[in-house]
Design goal:
The chain has about 170 residues and is α/β, with parallel strands linked by helices. It has seven helices and five strands; from the N terminus they run αβαβααβαβαβα. It is globular and about 50 Å long.
């Protein structure tokens, strides 16, 4: 969709930062040529909440560009079960791209981001603190290329599962 000139003070359409999967490799190659440090994380981000926002801000601080790999709808359903995702992938991607700390979002259909990480080859791979001590998917790829893997502690008491659980108990 063509975009006209932006009015002063009006941010660009976040859709411009949702990158088709087929364009990710070329985007990352360009960013590397520009000397940018690429940070990558991934997840379902089904109901965006304060914990997600804090996590993404902290991840973005580890480099110049934050690329978020977003699980597609079928992937979320396989991982989280019936009734998920609550929001479709296009809406989740738009919300993520609306955050100033997120540079780009791309949707992947696999259950893990391993193939996507091979395409991105980020300088920094970030996962939530619940992965501490576990083998983080793609960590071998990142380390083999001289990159680093970081875990970021979650904001206590914030999770999509907890929000959905509370919502089930609310009567209108």
């Amino acid at each position: 969709m063509p975009r006209g000139p932006q009015r002063p003070g009006v941010p660009e359409d976040p859709s411009a930062r949702v990158i088709p999967r087929r364009n990710v490799r070329a985007l990352c190659a360009r960013l590397r040529r520009e000397g940018k440090r690429i940070v990558f994380t991934n997840g379902c981000f089904d109901i965006l909440h304060a914990g997600h926002a804090q996590y993404l801000r902290r991840a973005a601080a580890l480099g110049d560009v934050l690329l978020v790999g977003l699980n597609g709808d079928a992937s979320v359903r396989r991982l989280k079960g019936k009734g998920r995702p609550v929001q479709r992938a296009a809406d989740r991607a738009y919300l993520l791209a609306s955050l100033s700390c997120v540079s780009y979002v791309t949707i992947f259909s696999e259950d893990t981001p391993a193939r996507l990480i091979r395409e991105v080859v980020p300088h920094v791979l970030v996962k939530g603190g619940d992965w501490k001590g576990k083998e983080i998917v793609g960590s071998d790829i990142v380390r083999a290329h001289g990159g680093v893997v970081r875990t970021i502690r979650f904001l206590a008491g914030r999770s999509t599962t907890a929000i959905l659980s509370r919502a089930k108990g609310v009567r209108s």
